[in-house]
Design a protein that fits this description.
700 residues, mainly alpha
Length: 700
C-alpha cells in the first residue's frame, strides 16, 4: 500500500523544486515551439503550444505564491533547517524573469495586445509583492554575496517584466500610424528619451529629417501597420493631395513593389510586429539592455553565487539553483538567436509557411462518405467524430494534410496577382458582378457570350454574396463531374490544365471559408446555408421524403455503382423536386443545378474552352472581392493561427492599389470624369516605370 504520510512529506519537500523546474521547462518549450507558429502545423500541436503559453504564467505565479507562503509560515520543508530559506528565496527573481515571457511569443492572440494595461497593473502588483516578500523572508545572517546576487537577478526580472506590456502596447492594432504626417516627411528627429525608444530603422537614416513629401520615410513596419489597421489609403492620399502641390497616387506610397516574394515578406513582418517583440527589438533601450546590461548582470549573479558559502545547504537545492541560473541566463540572453536558428532550420523543411496553403472543402464530397458507409464514420471512430462535431470542432481538425497541388495553385494565383496589369489599380473589385466595361475580370468577349436572361448573369448580379458562392460552388462541382476538362484527371496535371485546377481549387477554398471562417469570407456570411445545403444533398441522394409532400425521385437514390457523372445527374434531377404547392423543394440546389445546366450549354472543346475561362475568371473575381471586403483586423488575427491564403490575395491587391473595405466606406463613389482622370494619371505613372502589359494577365 502507498504510505500517504510519506507521500505528503515528499511532496512538501519537492513541491517548490518541481514548480520552478517545471516553469523553466515550459519556457524552453515555448522557445523551441515559437518558430512553429510561423508555419502551417496541425491544429492539435497549435493547441498544445497555446496550453503551454497559458500554463507558463499560471505555473510561475503558483510557484511564487508557494515560495513565499512557505517562508511566511517559517516552515521551510528542507532536510537542513533554516539556511535553506535564503537559497529558495533566491529563486524568486528567476520566476519573475519567467513571468516576463518569451520575446518570440509575446502574444498568442491579437486580443492580448489590447490588454497591455492589464499587464502593466499585473507588473506593478506582482513586482511589489515579490520585493516585499523577499525583504521579509531574507535572513539577516545569510551570505552577503547571495544577497547581491539576488538583487542583480531582481533587476533582470523587473526589466524582463517591463518589456512585455511595452511590446504589447506597441503591437496594439488600434495604435494607428499618423499616415499623413509620415508621408509628408514631417516625422521629426527623436530627442531626449525618445531616442531610447525609437526604432533604428530606415526612417531615421543618419538621424536626419527626411525631405518634405518623401514617401520613403515610411518603413516596412509603418506600411504593414497602415494596411492591418483598416486604414483607408485613398483617404490618406486624398488628405495629402489637399495639403501638397504634388499629386500622389496610392501606389507611390508603397513603391518599390519587387515581385511575388513581397507579400510573403510583409506577412512575416506583420506576424513579428503583432505576436513577437520585433517592434521593440531594434530600439536602443532594448539593444543596450539585452546586449550589454542583462548578460553582465547574469554573469555577475552566477559568479557571486558560485563564490558564496554553500555549507549547510541541501545539495539538491544547490544543483537546482545552478540549473535555474544557467539555463535562464542562456534562455534570456541567447533566446532570440536560438529562435532565429530554429526558424532557418525549419525553413529548409517542406512545411508551408504563413498563408502558403489552400485548404479545401467540397460540399458534395463531404456528403458522399456518409452515404456510402465510409469507415471514418463507422464504429467508435465515427462516434468520436460526431462528438467532436457536436462540441464545435470541424472535420479534419485532428488531420493535417499538405497538398502539393494546392500549393502549386497558391503560387500560381499569387504570381498572377502580383504581376497584374494596371487594370487592378484603383479598381472596385465588386465590378466582377457588373456586366459593363467596368468589369475587371470578364472582358467584353466573354460577356457577349452570356445572354441577358442567362442564369449565369442572374446568379452573379442578383444573389447575395454568400449564397452566390455556395450556388457557384455546387454548380462548379456538378460541371466537373459531368464534363471534366480534357486531360484533367491525369496526374501530374498538365501545364495547360492550370486554369481548370485553379477553378476547382478556388471553388473548394471559398466553400471552406463559408463553412469554417464565414466572417472572413464576407461580413454577415451565413454559415447555416452550407449546412442546410449539405442536408438537402443528403436527402436527395437518400430519397428521403420531405415536408409538405415533397419527395426525391426514386432514381436519385445513390448506389455503390454510381460514378461522378451519374452522381451529378441524380443531384440535378433531385434539385427539380417540388412541394405539393408547386414551389421548389430545394431552392438553392435548384438554382445551382440551373446554373450548372447553363454552364454546360456553353460550347467547350479542345480548341475553344470558353466555359472554363468564364468559370475561372468568375471565381477569381469572387476571391479578390472577398479578400478586399475582409477587415485587416481579421487578416491580422488569422496570422496567429497560421494565416489564410485569403490574406495573400488581400495583401497583393492592396499593394497594387485596389480599393479595400475601408476605402469603400470612407471615400465617395467617383464620378465618371474623376474615374477617367484617375485612370489616365495612373496609366501615365505606370508607363514611366514599367513596360506595357497585356490587357488581362490573370489567365494562364
Amino acid at each position: 500500500m502507498i504510505d500517504i504520510a510519506r507521500a505528503v512529506q515528499w511532496w512538501d519537500v519537492w513541491q517548490l523544486r518541481i514548480l520552478v523546474l517545471g516553469s523553466l521547462g515550459l519556457q524552453w518549450f515555448l522557445l523551441l515551439a515559437a518558430p512553429m507558429r510561423k508555419y502551417i502545423i496541425p491544429p492539435l500541436l497549435r493547441k498544445i503550444i497555446w496550453l503551454a503559453y497559458i500554463s507558463s504564467d499560471a505555473l510561475s505565479i503558483y510557484a511564487l505564491a508557494t515560495l513565499f507562503n512557505r517562508h511566511a509560515r517559517g516552515s521551510s520543508a528542507c532536510e537542513y533547517g533554516g539556511k535553506a530559506s535564503s537559497l529558495e528565496v533566491l529563486w524568486a527573481p528567476v520566476i519573475l524573469v519567467h513571468l516576463g515571457g518569451r520575446e518570440e511569443i509575446t502574444a498568442y492572440n491579437i486580443e492580448d495586445n489590447e490588454l497591455w494595461t492589464r499587464h502593466t497593473v499585473t507588473l506593478v502588483s506582482q513586482v511589489t509583492v515579490a520585493v516585499y516578500a523577499f525583504y521579509k523572508s531574507w535572513p539577516s545572517d545569510s551570505d552577503r554575496r547571495l544577497l547581491v546576487s539576488a538583487i542583480l537577478l531582481f533587476i533582470v526580472g523587473i526589466l524582463s517584466f517591463c518589456e512585455k506590456p511595452w511590446a504589447l502596447k506597441r503591437a496594439s492594432i488600434n495604435r494607428l500610424v499618423a499616415v499623413s504626417s509620415l508621408i509628408e516627411g514631417e516625422r521629426k528627429r527623436p530627442r531626449g528619451l525618445e531616442c531610447c525608444f525609437a526604432e533604428l530603422d530606415d526612417r531615421y537614416k543618419c538621424w536626419k529629417e527626411m525631405p518634405r513629401g518623401d514617401a520613403s520615410i515610411l518603413s516596412d513596419g509603418d506600411k504593414v501597420q497602415m494596411i492591418l489597421s483598416d486604414l483607408s489609403l485613398y483617404a490618406a492620399v486624398s488628405h495629402l493631395n489637399k495639403r501638397s502641390k504634388k499629386k500622389y497616387q496610392v501606389l507611390a506610397v508603397f513603391r518599390p513593389f519587387t515581385g511575388k516574394e513581397e507579400p510573403r515578406r510583409w506577412l512575416r513582418r506583420a506576424f513579428g510586429l503583432i505576436y513577437t517583440r520585433a517592434n521593440v527589438l531594434l530600439t536602443p533601450a532594448y539593444l543596450v539592455c539585452h546586449v550589454l546590461l542583462v548578460p553582465s548582470l547574469y554573469i555577475a549573479a552566477i559568479v557571486l553565487f558560485a563564490m558564496s558559502v554553500k555549507q549547510g545547504y541541501s545539495r539538491t537545492d544547490v544543483r537546482t539553483t545552478y540549473i535555474l541560473l544557467c539555463f535562464t541566463a542562456v534562455l534570456d540572453v541567447l533566446g532570440v538567436l536560438i529562435s532565429e536558428l530554429l526558424y532557418r532550420l525549419m525553413y529548409t523543411t517542406d512545411l508551408p509557411a504563413l498563408c502558403e496553403t489552400l485548404p479545401a472543402y467540397n460540399l458534395i464530397g463531404s456528403v458522399l462518405p456518409r452515404l456510402a458507409g465510409w469507415a471514418g464514420w463507422a464504429g467508435w471512430t465515427g462516434w468520436l467524430r460526431k462528438c467532436a462535431t457536436r462540441v464545435g470542432l470541424r472535420e479534419g481538425y485532428f488531420v493535417h494534410e499538405s497538398n502539393s497541388m494546392y500549393r502549386t495553385v497558391s503560387e500560381f494565383i499569387t504570381s498572377a496577382l502580383v504581376d497584374a496589369s494596371r487594370n487592378v489599380e484603383n479598381a472596385d473589385l465588386a465590378s466582377y458582378r457588373s456586366f459593363t466595361k467596368r468589369n475587371w475580370t470578364l472582358d467584353e468577349d466573354l460577356q457577349g457570350k452570356i445572354g441577358p436572361d442567362s442564369e449565369i448573369r442572374r446568379n452573379l448580379c442578383k444573389s447575395s454574396f454568400d449564397e452566390s458562392v455556395l450556388i457557384w460552388h455546387i454548380a462548379t462541382d456538378l460541371v466537373f463531374r459531368r464534363e471534366p476538362p480534357y486531360g484533367f484527371r491525369c496526374r501530374p496535371p498538365h501545364d495547360k490544365r492550370l486554369r481548370e485546377i485553379c477553378t476547382e481549387a478556388i471553388s473548394n477554398y471559398m466553400a471552406y471559408l463559408l463553412y469554417s471562417h464565414p466572417e472572413m469570407l464576407m461580413t454577415g456570411s451565413r454559415q447555416h446555408l452550407f449546412t442546410e445545403a449539405m442536408h438537402n444533398i443528403k436527402s436527395i441522394l437518400q430519397g428521403k421524403k420531405e415536408k409538405h409532400g415533397a419527395a426525391a425521385a426514386a432514381d436519385t437514390v445513390l448506389t455503390a455503382q454510381d460514378d461522378d457523372n451519374s452522381i451529378a445527374e441524380k443531384i440535378m434531377r433531385g434539385g427539380e423536386a417540388k412541394y405539393a404547392s408547386g414551389s421548389a423543394s430545394y431552392p438553392l440546389i435548384r438554382d445551382a443545378c440551373e446554373l450548372a445546366k447553363a454552364l454546360l450549354q456553353i460550347r467547350d472543346d479542345k480548341e475553344n474552352e470558353t466555359r472554363w475561362e468564364l468559370m475561372y475568371r468568375v471565381w477569381l473575381g469572387m476571391l479578390c472581392y472577398s479578400a478586399s471586403m475582409c477587415r485587416g483586423y481579421l487578416h491580422a488575427k488569422s496570422l496567429g493561427e497560421g494565416g489564410e491564403f485569403l490574406s495573400f490575395v488581400w495583401l497583393g491587391i492592396s499593394l497594387k492599389g485596389a480599393k479595400n473595405l475601408a476605402d469603400k466606406l470612407q471615400m465617395p463613389e467617383p464620378e465618371d470624369g474623376d474615374d477617367k482622370e484617375t485612370d489616365t494619371q495612373a496609366t501615365e505613372e505606370q508607363n514611366k516605370t514599367q513596360p506595357p502589359k497585356r490587357k488581362f494577365p490573370l489567365s494562364y
